[in-house]
Design goal:
single chain, mainly alpha, 542 residues, 69% helix
């Protein structure tokens, strides 16, 4: 929502309150940005710096496949700027530009952007994420299928606070297509039920957030393995292609300890079987809601969730279970059944016979089934297409971030980021410590930037070659891979600037910082357990 004034509002309306209009600014006045000349000085310095950088582009000597410390600057700049600006798109773009200057490839469009986004791998990401996933969610806003299913399921299983939280946990697993999407759908459907049974908004937002991205990485019949597979392709011999990276994602699910611990802890929390709930604020929130019925603390500022719970179902259309079960059944059936059959029955375990994984086909067919159901039930064709297009529009910013992320991977390869890190710390680093350190590194980056996918973009191209340089043991590579996947989700889930954190508060009507403060201790227990387990397994078996 824009903070700017309505352009149709007459200027004279501002003066009707009786206050005097401000005097025109003079050259001596200090505006919000400081004296007028300061902006010119800053602009001159920026332009001068860019000109100097372009002039010396390509002059940095390259040895052993890297540019020394300059090689880590592109991802480092992207990380620092994302934290400082709290905005990812510009940070990634500036990091790409810095890499172009270091590598002497000033035309970053021709050198990095086009090669990255003009590939089959990115086309697959675009097809699944932008068109299929976004379009499917857009269809559900027109048919009301997801909300209808959630209400039906809630009526069947919810009898009190514990079952209300368990229902929320189940919905998080059902809506596993992606972190942001899962957050919106789960929170919007579970909040009315939780409110009815005196579940505090802190409890509800924690369950929603902890079954969003964590669930998406351990039930990965979605776009996550496709994205990660594209990032790790070619980094080490184990996955020279994106398809091999996707297969490795599936085979390493068991090693994603943070996500497994987070989902399991959330289940115990929902059933109130957790031996001890870390964090006094969460315990106080639970007691307050049960004893007084207050879903938020007295001084809280709950975020509104009206925009997220609004559906745009036509007046003459009646939502039914088939609107949800048809597309989601197609999605899971096409994605899971061929994989299980080829893996367990035919014995396709890799090599020339990889298990059949039809994620892209599953999403496209799910969208077509959703459209077909809506049309068969009488929805106007234009309404169906409007829903599909609106859904695609809703994830456009995500597609832009993905394009810049895969481009930054190209930059890291061009400047030798991985080669420099391996040469600098590879020999002195113990394999026992690396998986735990990767969790901590991803935690810091994702917490600072508010994005797990952005963290993957800067960490995976470096982490995998570093791990390979220490040990070629497939178990060790799997542990490091799982540490990056889970560690980034850990930091993203705890960050107050993360989209899933904000949307969890929005969808459940919670105060943002109340959600952060009550979730952090619980998430940190899962993260700490993951680090300990990584260290022990590496010590014993690698």
């Amino acid at each position: 929502m824009s903070d700017t004034a309505d352009p149709d509002t007459p200027i004279t309306d501002v003066q009707e309150t009786g206050s005097a209009a401000p005097d025109p600014p003079t050259s001596d006045d200090a505006s919000e940005g400081g004296p007028w000349w300061r902006r010119w000085v800053v602009a001159a310095l920026v332009l001068g710096g860019l000109g100097a950088a372009v002039y010396v582009a390509g002059d940095i000597p390259k040895t052993d496949g890297h540019y020394g410390f300059w090689s880590v600057l592109p991802p480092l700049i992207a990380i620092v700027l994302a934290f400082w600006l709290q905005e990812v798109v510009s940070a990634l773009f500036i990091g790409i530009a810095a890499g172009g200057i270091i590598a002497g490839k000033v035309n970053i469009i021709d050198a990095f952007l086009l090669p990255a986004i003009g590939t089959e791998d990115f086309a697959l990401i675009l097809l699944v994420y932008l068109w299929a996933l976004g379009g499917l969610i857009g269809l559900w806003t027109r048919t009301g299928g997801a909300l209808r299913f959630a209400k039906w399921a809630g009526q069947k299983m919810v009898t009190g606070p514990k079952t209300a939280k368990f229902f929320t946990w189940i919905m998080g697993l059902v809506f596993h297509q992606g972190g942001t999407i899962s957050t919106i759908l789960t929170g919007a459907t579970a909040r009315p039920i939780g409110d009815q049974h005196d579940v505090s908004h802190e409890e509800l937002s924690y369950v929603v957030d902890s079954t969003a991205s964590p669930a998406a990485t351990i039930i990965p019949f979605n776009v996550w393995p496709i994205y990660v597979g594209g990032l790790v392709a070619g980094t080490i011999p184990l996955f020279e292609t994106s398809q091999e990276g996707i297969q490795f994602f599936f085979s390493s699910i068991w090693a994603n300890f943070y996500a497994l611990f987070a989902v399991a802890m959330t289940l115990l929390f929902a059933w109130e079987k957790l031996p001890y709930v870390p964090g006094k604020k969460m315990r106080d929130a639970t007691e307050r809601a049960r004893s007084t019925g207050k879903l938020d603390r007295d001084d809280a500022t709950p975020l509104t969730s009206r925009e997220l719970t609004e559906m745009n179902v036509p007046d003459d259309y009646t939502p039914s279970l088939v609107d949800f079960i048809g597309p989601i059944g197609t999605l899971l059936g096409v994605a899971i059944l061929p994989y299980l059959y080829t893996y367990f029955v035919l014995g396709w375990t890799g090599g020339e016979n990889d298990p059949l994984l039809l994620i892209a086909e599953a999403f496209v067919l799910a969208v077509l089934v959703g459209m077909g159901v809506a049309l068969f039930k009488g929805m106007n064709f234009d309404e169906v297409m409007d829903g599909f297009i609106d859904g695609c529009k809703g994830v456009t910013i995500g597609a832009i971030i993905l394009a810049l992320a895969v481009s930054l991977k190209e930059v890291a390869e061009a400047v030798g980021t991985a080669e420099y890190v391996v040469a600098t710390v590879g020999e002195s680093l113990s394999p026992t410590l690396l998986p735990g350190l990767l969790v901590v590194l991803c935690l810091i980056i994702a917490f600072s930037t508010g994005t797990s996918w952005g963290t993957y973009a800067v960490v995976f191209p470096v982490a995998m070659p570093l791990a390979w340089s220490l040990s070629q043991d497939p178990l060790f590579i799997t542990l490091c891979f799982g540490a990056v996947v889970g560690g980034a989700v850990y930091g993203d889930q705890c960050s107050p600037i993360s989209d899933t954190t904000v949307l969890s508060s929005l969808a459940t009507g919670s105060d943002l910082m109340d959600h952060v403060n009550t979730q952090l201790p619980l998430a940190s227990v899962a993260g700490g357990l993951a680090i300990v387990l990584y260290t022990v397994l590496t010590m014993l078996f690698v």
